[in-house]
Write a structure and sequence with these properties.
89 residues, alpha+beta, 5-stranded antiparallel sheet, 2 helices, 5 strands, globular
Length: 89
C-alpha cells in the first residue's frame, strides 16, 4: 500500500496489484477508525463508509485529480512506484 495524499485527517492510499478484488480503478480512504473504497472514474462509494463531510471531501478530491489518479492506477496495478498527489487545502 502506498499513500497518495493526506488532508483533513484523511489518508488516501492505493494498493499495488489491487485489481483483483475490485476490478475497476479505485482508492482507499481512512479517517480515524473508518475505512472506505471509492471508484476513481466517478467517486462513487464501493465499500465501507466515512463520516458524510469527509466522504464529500474525498469525492471532491477524486474529481479534481482524476487524471493523476488514473495514471497512478496504471502504475500500481503493474507494481510500479506511484507518485504523491496534492492534498485539498
Amino acid at each position: 500500500m502506498a499513500t497518495l495524499s493526506m488532508f483533513y485527517g484523511i489518508i488516501i492510499s492505493m494498493f499495488y496489484g489491487d485489481n483483483k478484488r475490485h476490478s475497476l480503478p479505485h482508492i482507499h480512504a481512512r479517517y480515524q477508525d473508518a475505512k472506505a473504497t471509492f471508484s476513481i472514474p466517478d467517486g462513487e462509494l464501493i465499500d465501507g463508509s466515512l463520516p458524510p463531510k469527509k466522504m464529500k471531501l474525498v469525492q471532491a478530491w477524486i474529481v479534481m485529480h482524476e487524471e493523476d489518479l488514473m495514471a497512478n492506477w496504471e502504475l500500481a496495478i503493474n507494481e510500479h512506484n506511484i507518485f504523491a498527489i496534492e492534498p485539498l487545502k
